[in-house]
């Protein structure tokens, strides 16, 4: 007669799946600056991507170890566009975003803080020469009105991230918000 309960050899084996939480994103801290001139134009930059597409955005870049946000804003503006702002000339943080993209090892993207500064019009020419700018992927720097930013497609080989033109237009029109906004572009 067979016993009612299976022996240890007859019991089905349970496989316990071990799921690990996803690894936290490795985000490079960075700053961006929305520079607005008296004609309400915004200084924008075009980056060439590895796939041949290009995207418009605001000047700025990674925060170096030991730098404050203000230090990084000042350094990036000197390097990329030749503007040397005093700390008091840099407005408040107006926005934040987590930008996940292929930036290269060891990073999965950037955590970016955006600042607003109203500045006199100037001809952008930074400390970095054309080769150094190209090494960072920067291929064009120019002043654009909010209407010109709205005219840039949000998809395709030459684009501006969806929502970026409207965000920039609000900053130009209304100035800095009461508190930083969370961007989803």
Give a short summary of the structure.
The protein is an alpha/beta fold.
Structure description:
Keywords: Hydrolase. InterPro entries: Nudix_hydrolase (IPR020476), NUDIX_hydrolase-like_dom_sf (IPR015797), NUDIX_hydrolase_CS (IPR020084), NUDIX_hydrolase_dom (IPR000086). Its cofactor is Mg(2+). It contains 4 helices and 9 strands; from the N terminus they run ββββαββαβαβαβ. With 185 residues, the protein is an alpha/beta fold. It has one domain: Nucleoside Triphosphate Pyrophosphohydrolase, CATH 3.90.79. Strands 4-1-6-5-9 form a 5-stranded mixed sheet. A hairpin with a 5-residue loop joins strand 2 and strand 3. The chain starts with 26 loop residues before the first strand and ends with a strand.
Question: What topology emerges from the helices and strands here?
Answer:
Elements: E1 27-36, E2 42-48, E3 54-57, E4 60-62, H1 69-81, E5 93-100, E6 109-118, H2 130-135, E7 138-144, H3 146-151, E8 158-160, H4 164-174, E9 181-182
Parallel strand pairs: 1-6, 3-8, 5-9
Antiparallel strand pairs: 1-4, 2-3, 2-7, 5-6
InterPro entries: Nudix_hydrolase, NUDIX_hydrolase-like_dom_sf, NUDIX_hydrolase_CS, NUDIX_hydrolase_dom
Protein name: NUDIX domain-containing protein
Family: Belongs to the Nudix hydrolase family.
**CATH fold type:** Nucleoside Triphosphate Pyrophosphohydrolase
| Secondary-structure element string | EEEEHEEHEHEHE
- Strand sequence of the main sheet, in spatial order? 4-1-6-5-9
The proportion of residues forming helix, as a percent range, comes to 10-25%
- Quickly give the structural class: alpha/beta
- Which regions contain 5 or more consecutive residues with pLDDT less than 50? 1-6
Rg (C-alpha, Å): 24 Å
From the spread of the alpha carbons, the general shape counts as globular
Assign the CATH class: Alpha Beta
Give the second-level CATH assignment, the architecture.
Alpha-Beta Complex
Total tally of structural domains: 1
Main sheet? 5 strands, mixed
* Mean pLDDT rating: 90
Discrete helix count: 4
Strand elements, count: 9
Strand content: 25-35%
Give the CA-CA distance, first to last residue.
70 Å
CATH-assigned homologous superfamily? Nucleoside Triphosphate Pyrophosphohydrolase
Protein name: NUDIX domain-containing protein
Domain Nudix hydrolase: 26-166
Cofactor: Mg(2+)
GO molecular function: hydrolase activity
């Amino acid at each position: 007669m067979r016993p009612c309960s299976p022996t240890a050899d007859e019991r089905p084996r349970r496989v316990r799946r071990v799921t690990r939480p996803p690894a936290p994103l490795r985000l490079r801290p960075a700053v961006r600056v929305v520079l607005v001139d008296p004609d309400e134009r915004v200084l924008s930059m075009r980056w060439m991507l590895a796939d041949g597409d290009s995207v418009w955005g605001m000047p700025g870049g990674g925060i170096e170890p030991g730098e404050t946000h203000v230090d990084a804003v000042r350094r990036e503006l000197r390097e990329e566009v030749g503007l040397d702002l005093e700390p008091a000339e840099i407005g408040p943080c107006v926005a934040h975003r987590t930008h996940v993209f292929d930036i290269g090892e060891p990073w999965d993207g950037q955590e970016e803080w955006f600042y607003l500064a109203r500045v006199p019009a100037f001809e952008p020419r930074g400390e970095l020469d054309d080769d150094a700018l190209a090494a960072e992927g920067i291929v064009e720097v120019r002043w654009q009105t909010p209407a010109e930013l709205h005219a840039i497609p949000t998809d395709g080989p030459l684009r501006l991230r969806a929502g970026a033109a409207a965000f920039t237009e609000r900053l130009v029109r209304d100035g800095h918000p009461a508190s930083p906004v969370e961007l989803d572009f």
